[in-house]
Write a structure and sequence with these properties.
Chain A: It is a multi-pass membrane protein. The structure holds 2 protein chains of 2 kinds. Chain A is mainly α. Among the domains of chain A are: 205 residues, no CATH class; 57 residues. Chain A has 16 helices and 2 strands. Chain B is of the alpha/beta class. Chain B has 22 helices and 19 strands. A 6-stranded mixed beta sheet of chain B has the order 6-7-8-3-9-10, sandwiched between helices. The longest helix of chain B has 18 residues. The chains are: A mainly alpha, B alpha/beta. The interface between A and B is large, with 71 and 101 residues.
Chain lengths: 387, 559
Amino acid sequence: MASRADPGGRLRHAPAETSRPRTRPPLHPGAWWLWALALGTAATRTTNPLLLALLMATSAYVVAACRPHAPWARSYSAFFKLALAVLVVRLVFAVVLGSPVPGTRVLLTLPELALPDWAQGIRLGGPVTAETLLRALYDGLRLAALLVCVGAANSLAHPARLLKSLPGALYETGVAVVVALTYAPNLIADVQRLRAARRLRGRPDRGVRGLLQVGLPVLEGALERSVALAAAMDARGYGRGADVPPRVRRTTGVLTLGGLLGVCAGLYGLLTAAGGTYGLPVLLAGVAAALAGLRLGGRRTLRTRYRPDRWDARARLVAGSGAAVAAMLVLASVRDPQALNPGVVPLVVPSLPLWPAAAVLLGLLPAFVSPAPRHRAAPAPVREEPS
Amino acid sequence: MIRFENVSVTYDGAPGPAVQGVDLVVPEGELVLLVGPSGVGKSTVLNAVSGLVPHFTGGTLRGRVTVAGRDTRTHKPRELADVVGTVGQDPLSHFVTDSVEDELAYGMESLGLAPAVMRRRVEETLDLLGLADLRDRSLATLSGGQRQRVAIGSVLTPHPRVLVLDEPTSALDPAAAEEVLSVLQRLVHDLGTTVLLAEHRLERVVQYADRVALLPSPGAAPVVGGPAEVMAVSPVYPPVVSLGRLAGWSPLPLTVRDARRRAAGLRERLAGRDTAAVRAPGAPVEPVPVPRPRRRFGRARPGEPGAGPVLAAEVRDLTVTRDRVRALRGVDLSVAPGETIALMGRNGAGKSTLLDALVGLVGPDGGTVRTGGVAPHRASPRELVRRVGLVPQEPRDLLYADTVAAECAAADADAGAAPGTCRALLTGLVPGIPDTVHPRDLSEGQRLTLALAVVLAARPPLLLLDEPTRGLDYAAKAHLVPLLRALAAEGHAVVLATHDVELAADLADRVVLLAEGEVIADGPTAEIVVSSPSFAPQVTKILAPQRWLTVGQVREALA
């Protein structure tokens, strides 16, 4: 575009950056999700606050280093706030409801509410002990770490990009789900815009009342947009199917349905004591039939994929680093349960177990393997006019 | 290629048909322009081509529509997707994916094209529409013009034989609009694509059309013919046609070039009567000679403008960063009472950001903004609303209530004005909007006027409008212009950000051109637009070197 030519010279650095060849394609989104979920798995293995904090810091560092410049990439902070809220709620519950942890160090005593007989076993108020609080803190931290890991996955790879890797037969369902998911971020953007518009009307643009008053217009707008999007998708060929002979269609149905039934029967067999012999083979046969059904169903869709994400060496490294963290912590939780789950009775200062901590640091690998595409995703002289 | 046979469409619950008696044949490779005032059913006709009417919208379609031999009654929109590409009015609601490149590929993926073909076509389309620099960008971060080009690109990649476009250029700056239109022209010439498009800004498109289909009024049968003959009877027409009618030229010229060749006589008659002294009629307040703050030594001297009249707004060395992007850098601007200023420039040049800074929606990262003597981003909303009012690009954002009456009552309460102020203003602006109607059901023009009345209820000395004529037909525009002139005459300062050069010529005393977030020109309208090829209105181009801006001026001079 002609406008790139900049007489001012102030932007002289910009063309070099924007015209830089696209050096590396983005990482496979599956790799990010595996990495993040593995970190989450690792978080469930421990209640050691130091390890959990280290895990969260690891994910935060990687997100800061790797996230692309896109609106959805900002969801990390939202998840962080959510995690904080969960932690606070957990602590409040522990204070109000107490917990079965036998504690001796009473910090304060809340007035206890007398409950009727049928509510025996529930206590409201009463003494709050340091042990109770600490246990709640550990538990809450574990949940928070899990949430933060999911948030990291969300901001590193948009769930929509995972769609590209879905089998053809499931694609359309997937699109529907993703469109439903993008409803929420659009809603938030609308709320921000309309609250700003309230300022133009001379009304305060903060506060709960402001939020409530823009509620209806926001919902209306979001609904209208969804309908418009559905029309656009329809006109662009979404849901076009190939003609398949009725025989193939029937076979697909039988295979999928039969396969799912087989999976149920097989699982039942595995779980009941009597069916130990037929359980596994039936389960395997069911899975195979269901997969065949999916594959055959894929014939009905014409879809092809444009530049599918490649599962390359970087993706393997990223997913592998996450898996390594999870594996090491699982191993550690078996070998050294004391260090990973510090007791609260009696109160002890949790110590940082050395080699599990080192293992967590393995999760930093993606920051070096696949740093942010920032230099090309955020070109300086964009002529943006957010409306 | 497209054939309408006695088509009428009635939506569910509507008292009468939205369109009826449509008989229209568009042969292959033709560019047909659909024109008519707002609300005559242009979008209905367009959507009937892609099958969205009636498959998606509901309603009853009588008659028959065939596209490339396929009857839309038996083919759903998705089964027409390989022959028809449709772009609606709002590109943002058209996007399915979230990055430019994926969006271009989406339609092809649905049609099941081979990966190698897709790759090639995406690259071709990126070049064709000048999007190569944006290929990795998220769609949410694009400016309006960029979005429109991506939307057109996304339906071009499957190589449809028919392209249907609803107002493709109304959100674009003149240069970007020309870019898009020349792409369409190339598709028609080189690929034999059939194009059917509706557009309000006729001055941009009419010369590209092979034929024009005019829907004169709601429910009336279309008039189809060559552009010149249809323009002769059309209730909507561009300035060049207006000038042609005034001068009695026949056949009517449609392009500036044709008009210039005829205009020798007219120029003679007008000779000596032009000069810059001819000002937009009805703007009695001479532009106050505001001393342009000169930064001779790099810094503005404090207290410099104290000698002049009290300014409605003053911006000094303003720098604003939005989303890590410098949207404005070192902008200086003074707005005097009674003055009308048009902010012009490319999409994304920073016009909206400057307006937002003037009402305090964004705070400055450097420099100062004073609106009516206060810093707008720090002022409380109640205080600010009496100093400055902004009608945003989407006037609906301002409206919350479910009836016009409730909206007006709320506006009075917000502004602390006497009850009935807003309603009286609205009736003064456009008579005949009933109290009970929902703001959503108003036409674009009526909704804009309602938003304007809401803003004016607080009598702000400074009135800002962001793209006020987007989606307005000529009649609504003709109504808006005297209205804004009257406000300026009362002493309101008016600043409008617009791509509409005809509007700016009609209305503005001063034009400020922005580029890359900097002010590149600031001066009287006549001086600025006359010297600019892309911002000059049609009348100026036709009558150059004389300096006329609007048909109204010419008519007055001849009278």
